[in-house]
Amino acid sequence: MAAVTADEAETWLIEKIAHRLGVDPSEVSREVYFDELDLDSTEALILAGELENWLGFELSTTTLWYHPTVKDLAAYLAEESTQRAAAA
């Protein structure tokens, strides 16, 4: 399993969120809180599931709460991905 960089995770998140919102990726700020992006809880769960499929590992149910922006979540995902790749 290859590690994901923070930049890769940011790009992935921004593209997925933009698609869900029906906007251009340039309209999704990496520093806006997820709850300000008009994503309801169902969409957040779907996004988390898609993330797990993309990353190849399960996320905690509180991951998006503890890392509430694209920037914060991408940094966490890169760190977690690197740790898991090193352990594999």
Automatic annotation (TrEMBL):
The record, for Pfam families, names: PP-binding (PF00550)
| Entry keyword Oxidoreductase | no
Keyword tags: Phosphopantetheine, Phosphoprotein
Q: Which residues form the Carrier domain?
A: 4-81
Instruction: Tell me yes or no: is Phosphoprotein among this UniProt entry's keywords.
Output: yes
Which residues does UniProt call coiled coil?
none
SUPFAM superfamilies per the record?
A: ACP-like
PROSITE patterns reported in the protein's UniProt record = CARRIER (PS50075)
Q: Which InterPro entries match?
A: ACP-like_sf, PKS_PP-bd, PP-bd_ACP
Indicate what this protein is called per its UniProt record: Acyl carrier protein
- The source organism is Streptomyces galbus
